[in-house]
Amino acid sequence: xxxxxxxxxxxxxxxxxxxxxxxxxxxxxxxxxxxxxxxxxxxxxxxxxxxxxxxxxxxxxxxxxxxxxxxxxxxxxxxxxxxxxxxxxxxxxxxxxxxxxxxxxxxxxxxxxxxxxxxxxxxxxxxxxxxxxxxxxxxxxxxxxxxxxxxxxxxxxxxxxxxxxxxxxxxxxxxxxxxxxxxxxxxxxxxxxxxxxxxxxxxxxxxxxxxxxxxxxxxxxxxxxxxxxxxxxxxxxxxxxxxxxxxxxxxxxxxxxxxxxxxxxxxxxxxxxxxxxxxxxxxxxxxxxxxxxxxxxxxxxxxxxxxxxxxxxxxxxxxxxxxxxxxxxxxxxxxxxxxxxxxxxxxxxxxxxxxxxxxxxxxxxxxxxxxxxxxxxxxxxxxxxxxxxxxxxxxxxxxxxxxxxxxxxxxxxxxxxxxxxxxxxxxxxxxxxxxxxxxxxxxxxxxxxxxxxxxxxxxxxxxxxxxxxxxxxxxxxxxxxxxxxxxxxxxxxxxxxxxxxxxxxxxxxxxxxxxxxxxxxxxxxxxxxxxxxxxxxxxxxxxxxxxxxxxxxxxxxxxxxxxx
Length: 564
What we know:
By secondary structure, the protein is of the alpha+beta class. It folds into 3 domains: 17-185, Elastase, domain 1, CATH 3.10.170.10; 196-205 and 216-389, no CATH class; 418-563, no CATH class. The protein is 39% helix and 19% strand. The chain has helices at residues 83-89, 91-113, 170-185, 195-214, 217-223, 240-254, 257-263, 266-271, 288-311, 324-345, 356-370, 379-389, 418-421, 425-434, 480-487, 528-540, 553-563, and strands at residues 17-23, 30-31, 34-35, 37-43, 56-58, 61-62, 67-68, 126-134, 138-141, 146-154, 162-165, 232-234, 321-323, 446-458, 464-479, 500-511, 517-523. The strands form 6 sheets. Strands 5, 8, 9, 10 and 11 form a 5-stranded mixed β-sheet that branches. It has a 4-stranded antiparallel β-sheet with strand order 14-15-16-17. A hairpin with a 4-residue loop joins strand 6 (61-62) and strand 7 (67-68). Helix 4 runs parallel beside helix 9 (288-311), helix 9 runs antiparallel to helix 12 (379-389) and helix 10 packs across helix 11 (356-370). The chain is globular, with a radius of gyration of 24 Å.
């Protein structure tokens, strides 16, 4: 239980943290024959039964059986000696599990970004249904303002049927929560655009799910090394191939085959991708889940390399053995740092038409801003090397070190009020209007400031970086003939001249703590190369002929993965 502080007036102040038990991976990952659980620390808040708080509202309604479960009160305490039955079958624990993991992921984003984060759906609360329907699926829906977790039954020839609940899988819950948060940070990433953008939501959600799991020391410790756990671990168990097999492949092998129908096999299949091959150009990697695995492969390979580099700095305690607790701590610390980098990189990514190269340059730039000296562990060099091994180079607009180029030129600030620039969309739009030539923003397209966020980032050395991040988008709707005549864009030859097409541009403006523009990270509306490629991809894949009903795109995407 969190400690209670005394307020200055003498009364008891509300605690800031709460600890709750969760399943650390999913029920099929066991240690010593027992389900692997852990206790996580999440923000404390006023709760009503559900649990329902100011950001997450668990409503346990099963649409298949028309059942509304009794709202759970936290913490849920196990009764009796059969702990596994309690975890698997008690809907109150299921409600606690989803609530705690959703809140943990939200808290990780808010820590990394240095501000409150909105959901992609309307409203302050995200509704979560642990037993939403009887189906091997789980998804986020913007329109329904919620996360929906299915359940299903697996027949077993040697015993009774086995119930499987997606609401008990840490990485499925974290994955779907990430979709809801990323949709709030970059709303236009759900627009049809390119193979990379289609895959980015899936790949990024898998990255957050995996790194958040590896940042739990209980998970790393349970998977590390062979034989019974002891205070020491031999160096032979810390060689690259051994630790890759025990920790990464070890987890991939233990993940239940039943739940892999829902989550896919992002970890295992990414680990099996051979570096040095042109995966991005292969037909099988045009599908969003498979293409997202390339991004996962680059990040998880970097995780392993950096962990091993940190272990080299640990001394031996006895012969060729190292302190197991320090080894585990270093692994969790690397996962935590990479997770923070990945989340912060969203602010340094363009708000439309993202590709993997953009994300790599965003990763490198935001880390350089917070950790200028990277010589100790070489995170940025390791990321560049591993991304390149999977065919991903930094963006072409980047510096030689892969980071974004700072904004150049002389900008007009005289008619912009600094205080308003930190929070007012109208003031940011005025800055854009006054400087549209320097920012290379076309006068004809519709321009809108979609978001503005002051952020405070704290580096590992305590260094504080204050920034303001603003997003603007450009939108233009023209016929195919007008695109050719007015912008010089070349849509596919067989597109009808009178078909109306909407194109996008936009950028992220990064202001320093004095209100001066540091970076403009943009995709220009008038980019012939980018628009030609986008229209070609969308036309060849039939996007223009699809129905407008986009009620739950993740439901269809994840169901397609489950059914093959």
